[in-house]
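README: folding subset

This subset contains proteins for which both the sequence and a predicted structure token string are available. Records are stored as plain text. Below is the entry for Nyctalopin (480 residues), shown exactly as it appears on disk.
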Amino acid sequence: MKGGMLVLLLHVVVLGLPRARAVGACARACPTACACSTVERGCSVRCDRAGLLRVPADFPCEAVSIDLDRNGLRFLGERAFGTLPSLRRLSLRHNNLSFITPGAFKGLPRLAELRLAHNGDLRYLHARTFAALGRLRRLDLAACRLFSVPERLLAELPALRELAAFDNLFRRVPGALRGLANLTHAHLERGRIEAVASSSLQGLRRLRSLSLQANRVRAVHAGAFGDCGVLEHLLLNDNLLAELPADAFRGLRRLRTLNLGGNALDRVARAWFVDLAELELLYLDRNSIAFVEEGAFQNLSGLLALHLNSNRLTVLAWAAFQPGFFLGRLFLFRNPWCCDCRLEWLRDWMEGSGRVTDVPCTSPGSVAGLDLSRVTFGRSSNGLCVDPEELNLTTSSPGPSPEPAATTVSRFSSLLSKLLAPRVLVEEEANTTGGLANASLSYSLSSRGVGGAGRQPWFLLTSCLLPSVAQHVVFGLQMD
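--- output ---
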């Protein structure tokens, strides 16, 4: 028993020696102004916010992660980090880098993630900047104010999976992306890209997510996504698209999210979505859509949400969804809906499914301001739907509530005071606060002889009879 315990203890000591040596080496070789800690597979070095103006001369040989964010680094020379055979992650975000020497990252054979984001003075990268980074999987070039990317820059990165290059100044999709057979995610949003050409995404056969939102895209060429057969998420929202070719998304049979919101589209064509049987989320909001073609959504049998809000739709035909259409949620608010019989199917769907809400009516006038869910459709003698406006004309509706007698008397008194008031000359009336309106009224009365000198007996008789008539009318209203 004692022998077994001794052997076990010996094993623990022997296995723990390498780790103990690694912990000691990590602490001893830690650069000044940095903090080093031992992690599962090696040493983590943190030099962020350390006020560094140049890269430290030596790092622990066991380093697997180095963080140099938010310093004042301006230049990376040849083999800037020496030889670090275990390094997997290197972050240089939020520095002042303006130039990176070709070969700066030599000596980092296992580097898998490189972050250079928010180096606004970088602007240009040499074609050989990433030479020898054959295992790099993630590259972050966001917010570096890059105008272009050399065609051969990414050719040295056969293992690249994810590229973040948003917030740059590209006017076209970088040609360096072509042929990246293993790229799965490309983030190119918030730039100045004006078009997606037929060759822009050539060879990206494993691309699963592409973000081009918030650029200046005016055109998507036919066949632009022809090589992207496994694409799942495509974001083209907040661009300048006014139209799309019929086969813009042809072949995207695995697409699950398509965002076209915030563009200038004025219609929805049936041909756009022919191949998108797997689509789950479709955003068409914040456009100028006034017309949806019949059968436009009929192939989208798995759609979970359709956003058509903030457009110019007055009507949406059920024929746009048939046949056999199933939809999770439908968003239709902020459209000038005409709630006539053409939307009766939608009202019934709202009641039955609860998946559509907030459809305010703009017309006809009888239901303006109401939500479609509160609109009542009638039936004619032959069973046809009757529009709400026609219903209001043919059915009785409760009249206005009786006004108090005091209000009625005051109105008659006001009328009498106007009729019994002494005539005012047109010139004098035109100068009063009422202006042209009062002058016109005075002219009309005087031209008919009201208050004239030759009509005094008639005028006096009228002035005596009108109060009596008013009293009888008020009495009759009170009796009703």
